[in-house]
Amino acid sequence: MDRGEIGWDGMDWIDLAQDRDQWRALVNTILEKKWEYNETVLRLFIDFKQAYDSVKREVLYNILIEFGIPMKQLFLTKTERTPPRSSKDNLQDLQYELGCSGRSFWNRMNTLSEDFLKELECPVCMEYMASPIMMCKSGHNICNSCRPKLKECPTCRQPFLNVRNKALENLSLLAKYPCPYKRYGCQLVFTQERITEHQTVCPYRSYNCPLSEAEGIMCKWIGIREDMREHIEAQHRNRLTQVDFLKEVLLRKYRPEIKYSRVIFACDEVFYQQFEVIDNVFYFVIQHIGPENYDLKFQYNFTLASQEHEESISISFVARSCKLDIATIHRSGQCVKLCFDTVKNFLNENNSLKFEFYIRQL
Q1: More confident residue, 180 or 329
Q2: CB atoms < 10 A from the CB of 3, how many?
Q3: Does residue 98 surpass a pLDDT of 60?
Q4: Distance of alpha carbon 317 from its chain centroid, rounded?
Q5: pLDDT given at position 67
Q6: Could you identify which of 13, 64, 81, 165 might form a hypothetical disulfide with 133, taking C-beta atoms 3.0 to 4.6 angstroms apart as the criterion?
Q7: Confidence band for 230, pLDDT divided at 50, 70 and 90
Q8: pLDDT confidence band for 128 (50 / 70 / 90)
Q9: Residue 315 scores a pLDDT above 70
Q10: What residues contact residue 275 under an 8 Å CB cut-off, 6+ apart?
Q11: For residues 322-357, b (16+ Cβ closer than 10 Å) or e, as one string?
């Protein structure tokens, strides 16, 4: 007996299955036709939900082990696929799976977390990978930044696929990443979406010496901001200026081909000062040694005046973070930027340059 014989050929089985009323009416019609045609009707009901839940997942996990799937990946898969349960039940299950409890259990958990983070390390740049994570033909992963730079996988030399490792991407969103400045003392961990925000304000963020690119010095020191004062006072005292309010500078026999740079202590903070002439343009910049979104803002003022004080130029700007490249600040115009022909008018007969500056907190 088919649907055409009972007048139900206008709907397919999928539509019928999704419409309970229609399905119930169809079953009743079949039962009525059973008596009319005196035929046997067999009824079979399948509970798909119950059938799916009855799958023996441990058997599937054992098969994965036989195929050589690493235990740490298998553990992560089981954790992700397990239905939500109470924290106590999950803890007991994990202790059972790992075969340990107490301090040994937590040590094992830390080991698993470290192993997982190693899986997220890009084999090229050694940074943690974030979405999208690309794969090679052999299944090795690589971050999206390094992928365009390479023609083949650095691990196995197989070609890359235009395929993303969605499973690893999803797990990476759940992972807790240690701060990149952990080696300097930061013990905090964050999710992927918050760690970048933390990096900009981390008190253990590393800084280069302000004089790392200063002519004649090129200091290689790298450390945290709190240790910078001690380093400057010990290694660069001859390039250090303490400013309480207004500082008058007299530069004898000024040479425009030289880039002048100093470290400034002012307002209980550290600043970097640099002035130079590029393509007949005089640039004067003061940068704050601190993060881009520092809680405090500082303003510096630069003043040129003739000997008789009949003519003067005074300009003020906000001190940008040292994390910004000076060339970028030059291009933006967010600094003192004067035609050098104008500055020449303020040089005295000995070719000395005299100017004043101060730094204040806004």
Answers
A1: 329
A2: 16
A3: no
A4: 30
A5: 65
A6: 165
A7: very high
A8: confident
A9: yes
A10: 259, 260, 282, 283, 284, 285, 336
A11: beeebeebbeeeebbbbeeeebeebbeeeeebbbeb
Structure tokens at 347: 């040089």
Over residues 15-51, the pLDDT tens digits come to: 555 566 766 777 777 777 777 777 777 666 656 555 5
192-225 pLDDT, tens digit per residue, is 778 777 877 787 888 889 998 888 888 999 988 8
Question: Among all chains, which residue has been given the structure tokens 């023609």?
Answer: 151
* 122: Cβ contacts below 8 Å, ≥ 6 apart: 128, 129, 141, 142, 143, 145, 146
Indicate the residue type of 150.
Answer: L
What domains lie within the chain, and their CATH numbers? 1-34 (no CATH), 57-118 (no CATH), 120-175 (3.30.40.10), 239-361 (2.60.210.10)
